[in-house]
Amino acid sequence: MSLNDRGPASNQLNEPPAVNKRGLVRRLPRRERIRELEKGIEQLHEQSQNAQQIPLEPVEFAEKILNFKPSPYRSTMLSDKSKRIAVRICRQGGKTTVIAARAIWFAVTHPNTTTVIIAPSQRQSIIMMDTIHGFIFTINDKDRRTILKKALRTTIYLKNGSRIIALPNNPKTVRGYTADQAICFPSHIKILMADGTETQISNVVAGQRVLSCKLRTNQIEAQRIIEVSRK
After folding, report:
1. Which backbone phi and psi does 138 adopt, to 5 degrees?
2. Is the per-residue pLDDT at 157 higher than 90?
3. Residues 6 or more apart from 32 whose CB is under 8 A from it?
4. Which of 170, 180, 194, 225 suits a disulfide with 209, CB 3.0-4.6 Å?
């Protein structure tokens, strides 16, 4: 008997699977199973093509995927291939933005890796994670579906098996992770005073003068601290 001779039974392809008395779903017709397999293969092929289009070079990745055009000094930070990188830069110098971009680039281009963000407090590591979230959700829909699996408040899971985790600097919570990339914000940062001496940032008080560098002009000048906020 041909498929056209089966009458109403041929409409089963467009209907949801029937459920028997025991609540078990019947097996899909062979033609529909083949159709689902073909659809899955097409999706995998599309994901593979999209993955090949993702730039591997960090600056190009930031510009094309994250829609972020880094300045020359930020490009240097992104492209640095050193195993350990220390960033010492003025307040509002864009370090959080460029480090967030580097964290995403590393996680996307290095499958099955773990990136941990460690700061003296959970609040500080969440600030970095908020910047990463901001980048993730500015990616166009097509690329984001290829890259992102799930985005939570403190953890981001990618479809390539990588993840980005925000943690406070607490031995009880940091232990147990094997980090392929660690982003740390030390609490004992030193700054350069106007007289040339170094002082821990936790000891700085209002009224003191520190050396400040203007990024646009690359000029160093002494600035007086107006107010100190400690949280």
Report:
1. -100, -10
2. yes
3. 13
4. 194
Query: What is d(CA 165, CA 146) in angstroms, rounded to the nearest whole number?
Result: 20
pLDDT above 70 covers what percent of the chain? 73
Residue whose structure tokens are 């097996």: 27
Q: Are strands 155-158 and 163-168 parallel, antiparallel or unpaired?
A: antiparallel
Cβ neighbours for 230, distance < 8 A, ≥ 6 positions apart? 202
- What stretch of H or E contains 140? none
Distance in angstroms between the alpha carbons of the first and the last residue of the chain: 79
What the chain holds in terms of domains, given with CATH numbers, is 58-184 (3.40.50.300), 190-224 (no CATH)
Q: What angle do CA 102, 130, 105 make, to 5 degrees?
A: 20
pTM (two decimals): 0.62
> How many other β-carbons are positioned within 10 Å of the β-carbon of residue 47?
13
Express each pLDDT in 35-83 by its tens digit.
Answer: 888 887 877 666 665 555 788 999 999 999 999 999 888 898 899 888 8
Relative to beta strand 163-168, strand 114-119 is: parallel
Q: How far apart are CA 106 and CA 80, in angstroms?
A: 12
- Take residue 171 and report the two structure tokens written for it: 């031995």
